[in-house]
Amino acid sequence: MTWRDLCSWTRRRDSSESERRLESNLPYEGEKSKNQPNRHYAGNAIKTTKYTLWNFIPKNLIEQFRRVANAYFLSIAILNFVPSVNAFQPQVALIPICVILSLTAIKDAWEDFRRYQSDRKLNRRPCLIYSRSQQSFMERRWKDVKVGDFVRVLSNEIIPADILLLHTSDPNGVCHMETANLDGETNLKQRRVVPGFCDTNSTFEPQNFNSIVVCEKPNDNLNHFSGFEKGNKKTGFGIESLLLRGCTVRNTADASGIVVYAHETKSMLNNNRPRNKRSKLERKMNIEVFFCVLLLIFMCLIGAVHVIWLESFSTIPMYFIPNSDGTYTSSALSGVNMFFTMIILLQVIIPISLYLSIELVKMGQVYFITQDVDLYDEERDIRMQCRALNITEDLGQIQYIFSDKTGTLTENKMVFRRCTIMGTEYPHSENATRLALLAGETDADEEVIYQQNRRPPLFSLEEAQDGPARASARLPGNSSLHRSRVTAGASSCMAFSSPMETEVVPDETLLHLMENEEDKSYLDFFLAMAICNTVVVSTDTARRQGVTGRRNSALSSNPLECMEGLFSRATCCKRLRKSLEKLTCRRDSHAEPFDMGQTSFYDVSAFTNSVEGFDEDENAPGHRSNVNRRPRTGSSPAAPLEVCYEAESPDEAALVHAAKAYGFTLLERTPDHVTVRLPHGKELKFKVLDVLNFDPVRRRMSIIVRHPRTREIIMYTKGADSGIMEAAETQGDLDMYARDGLRTLCFAKKVVNEQTYSAWSIRRQEALAAISRKKELLMDTAADMENNLTLLATGIEDRLQENVPETIRALREAGIQVWVLTGDKLETAVNIAYSCMLLDHRDLVFTFNTESKREFSIGLVIDGRTLSLLLDDDLQTQFVELCSHCRSVLCCRATPLQKSRVVTLMRHRLKVMTLAIDGANDVNMIQAADVGVGISGQEGMQAVMASDFSISRFKHLKKLLLVHGHWCSTRLANMIVYFFYKNVQAYVNLLFWYQLFCGFTGTAMIDYWFMIFFNLLFTSAPPIMFGIMDREISAFMLLQLPQLYKRGQQTGGYRRSTFWIGILDAFYQSFICFFIPYWAYEGSDVDIFTLGIPMNTVSLFTIILHLAIEIKSWTVVHWVIMVGSVLVYFIVSLAFSALCISCNPPSDPYWLMQQQMADPIFYLICILTTVVALLPYFLHALRGTLMPSDHLKARQIDQLPPHRRDQFLREWRNLQELCASFPSV
User: Fold this and answer.
1) Average pLDDT for residues 815-820, to the nearest whole number?
2) Would residue 404 show up in a list of annotated catalytic residues for this protein?
């Protein structure tokens, strides 16, 4: 067995294993690689390049010849080397294909060189690796890291590989990690040392590690990891103990661990190459290319049959050349030879430069889209980004839009509104009035709603062109290197710092009950709000380094003073002002904003550990809140600390702030305990026994703690109402909240006895240590514990983004069907649908909410359980037929899988162009659509990273589709039709007409060098400029008249009839361009090239002026390129005629162009032929003024004075509204 066979065998063996086993590399330090225990696992070096210096040419050529067009032109060039069929000099025939291949190769080489530079920079980053010989951590490079090495990462440094955490500087064994570079989530994640592995208070000694680590095979699941450490005992661990490559250590001096994945890290496996989608227009174009091939074969068959027909004459034509032995080639063979000769002669009917020109046009279109200032979010410094360069024209053909709600239509900024405790509803009317006032004060009066660190965009145009730009290569630490170490710039992201989101006015009734009663249910409710969440707490002494934020000094730092100032400007808030005055009287200068220090409260337990959110829409992280409090004064135990809340969802931040308003302040969270300060100032620390993390099946999370005084074991649960046992006294309030557009969730409590918990804990530990079926085992143990719960409820408001109703209305006027697929409660989703004008009060709305299959009437609102039935095979046809007649469709309580199935079903059954847009983590839905759009909002960047286009606001979708989509689709469609017309008119037909007079011998009346220059030099720039810069209608009119978008939905501006009209026009123009010069010189003694020069010239004039008629908006660039193309033609022609004496023997073009330009007949022929050739097309363009289309009318309106234009648009909109009110009109 050879070494290569051995390596291949070990790789196959490794891939067949179900788990990964590794051990420390330290005992084998300095030994040969064959003795290393982890030698089968890939190293940490990154290589994203496709080529090397040695394989670039062959590999690039193979890649380019995968394109059928390139293979076609290469075969034509090779065919020209056959003497019996060649039409030109063989070497000259290679020039066009060589130019195209060379330009593409240079582009590919430059892109690959940039990838090489990025890889080299990343691989040379420094890191600390433990050396047994040096008895310390030594500085090495990232590329030197191997599986089984011990690596130490310092604060604010980027993690070089996936590391199992074994030690941290934190006494509680906690390490905080920021994953913004990996998934866009800006909140801190907690990681903790493997349970029971080492004493966190002692010095970490890697050489003492003698255990075997067993974990799962490398995979791309960022939220799951399982394994166990096999030493003296078997200890299980999960994702909470794994440091992910590309993330940044925060708020921890140092963290150390053993490398479990090097090259196969989760970040590397998640970062795929940009998807290569094919646009609808490109698929249509391939059919037209096939028609051109059929046309070419037909014209070549005419030449072959003509030769056979000539040889049937009694006398052989004099231009038939005999063979060396005096005989003539048989007619059949002559016909075959002529067929291939004609193919070589007319080969340009397939435009060789079309594909390259389309790529250049799309790159130019993407550049102008990304530079549009209207699609730029100045608040967060985010611009529109494009990851799919080849589907820009699909933006102009969208027929169905599928949108999520939370974070897409709404701001995902949550504010606490009302709650229900033990069946009693507390409306918080004073807080509602305060929120109404803040909402009316404009965004300028808010302090800082959301600030995002101004780092380079995740996906720029350059990175999209680069291909596999690794996520870990886009790390923001390059500008802040400290002592040559790799340090990530500290984030400055702070969320929920506005008064609207952080300050809550307590309900007077509930506050009075809490002051006068010691009811445990009220206290449990606020304690659950404070600690049953994923919020990470840090104080002013542990704040992440470099945290800075812009603050609006116009608002007072005192929340009550701020509110009082706002209310003093409102005349309708006297009652609320009195309430604030009462609360201010109770406030102590050193206490919380609403101090209840004189009240006796029940001492309850606190909880710890980060767990997942309760709802599908909540489970998308990316939020943090900076809560500034006054510093301690004196020794008062109730003096507030300055704490910073890092929440994984806006819901949790709103709940923590609401609990704090009632005096329940979350102070500290560690893996083992959580500390809460009660309203009277007493701090209680509760031991965390276990955490039941959130999952989308259960739709809830739970935390189990031990009470510090009563020693009771208590479990608190938070989740969606569908995930917790329903209770009659609460469900009515939940439905009321949903009808008001509030997001609803439930809190529940359960007291567990010692025996039950002990038996359950054993099963839980076994599940945690499992590798196979771990998820199922954990689900089973959670179901065993989460039962017999006592319910509570609360309501949170999620505000709509600005201009969402206007955007949806414009999209619907454009003929686009808008669907909303959300996981929210039905009543909540319906209320939001009315708010954003998805549903109109004039609509007849039917609701599907059933659990069994039966006959239905038409419906618009569908529940998730019903949706699962409708997606079955036996109901899909009826479901699609129903939806095709609906004005709007709203699917609520839909799972991510159901969303993607709905998109796929409608796309395949109706054959429509679909677009999916999401601002959180519905990656499946985005990837199922023809075009995926992600919103870079507050819930992370998962959708953005999986999308084709990313925007920062839903309102940007309006201009992206109605303006840029219309422009891109129209420009590219017109350019493709023009390209086919140009090539057929220019030489294919001119040469074909000439064959009628030269006996189909394959002779050309134009020098072959001019034929090459014509497509590569003289006429290459104008169509590219036309495809990038032409504007049929201005952006203003496209936004004012969304109906103009409808033309592109069915045909995309590219109809087959348009293609054939262009071909017929090319035949007519070529006929004129050939026969007028031929008749002008008939009977004269001019040579063949003297005849060809005016034909070539008038062909150029006709093609350029034809494009000039097509152009709708002229700029300086248009004039320069159009006039410049004509000047270049004459300059090159004059130079070629003067210098090239025998460039293409036996032809001799010397001084022919000079002689022609000295002859007045040449100018007369050029003028007359061009006018006659363009006359039908010019009359066709004039016909549009007599029967103008909607687009031409829009251009005419746009040219009116502004006041007349606006008056016309107002009258037109009033007419539209009148027609909508009376459909029968």
Assistant:
1) 88
2) yes
Beta-bridge partners for 705: 688, 714
CB atoms within 10 A of CB 706: 17
984 in the same domain as 924 = no
pLDDT (tens digit, 9 = 90+) per residue, 740-784? Answer: 556 677 888 888 889 899 999 888 888 888 877 777 888 888 888
HSE at residue 545, side-chain half, CA atoms within 13 A, is 16
Domain count, the chain: 5
From the annotation, which residues make up the binding site for ATP? 404-406, 652, 694, 718, 743, 822-824, 893, 899, 921-922
In this structure, are 947 and 998 located in the same domain? no
Claim to verify: residue 740 and residue 847 sit in the same structural domain: no
Rounded Cα distance, 79 and 73, in Å? 10
CA atoms within 13 A on the CB side of 14: 17
Residue 816 shares a structural domain with residue 934: yes
Kindly state whether residues 990 and 1136 are assigned to the same domain. Answer: yes
Listed residues 756, 776, 797: the one ending a domain: 797
**What pTM value is reported for the model?**
0.70
Let me know whether 1006 and 929 are in one domain: no
| Residue whose C-alpha is closest to residue 712's, from 669, 754, 760 | 754
Last residue of a domain, one of 232, 264, 296: 264
Query: Annotated binding site for Mg(2+), which residues?
Result: 404, 406, 918, 922
What are the tens digits of pLDDT across the range 1031-1053? 888 999 999 989 889 888 876 56
Note whether residue 561 is domain-resident: no
Residue carrying the six token digits 């609320």? 576
Alpha-helical segments (H) within 696-825: 728-739, 754-769, 774-785, 804-813
Which residues pair with residue 136 across a beta bridge?
Answer: 131
Amino acid code (one letter) for 453: N
Q: Which domain holds residue 1133?
A: 976-1048+1059-1187
Report whether 943 contacts 951 (CB < 8 A).
Answer: no
Residue 414 lies in a domain: no
Q: What is the CATH number of the domain that holds 401?
A: 3.40.50.1000
Do both 1117 and 1176 map to the same domain? yes
Q: What is the pLDDT of residues 1179-1191, one digit of tens each?
A: 877 776 677 778 8
% helix, strand, coil for the chain, step of 5? 45, 15, 40
Conformational region of residue 634, where left means phi above 0, alpha means psi within -120 to 50, and beta covers everything else: left
- Residue 1116 CB-half CA count within 13 A: 0
* Residue 420 within a domain: no
Half-sphere exposure of 37 (CA within 13 A, CB side): 16
Residue among 162, 394, 404, 1030 flagged as catalytic: 404
- Burial-class residue 1174 by CB neighbours within 10 Å (0-12, 13-18, 19+): buried
Q: CATH number of the domain that 764 lies in?
A: 3.40.1110.10
Q: Which residue has the higher pLDDT, 261 or 1215?
A: 261
Provide the annotated binding site.
404-406, 652, 694, 718, 743, 822-824, 893, 899, 918, 921-922
Element holding 288 (H helix, E strand): helix 280-310
Do 1074 and 1165 belong to one domain? yes
Residues forming a β-bridge with 684: 676
Average pLDDT over residues 534-550: 53
On whether residue 560 sits in a domain, the answer given is no
What tokens does 1146 get? 């036996």
Q: What angle do CA 369, 460, 269 make, to 5 degrees?
A: 135
As given in the structure block, the two tokens for residue 484 are 């040559």
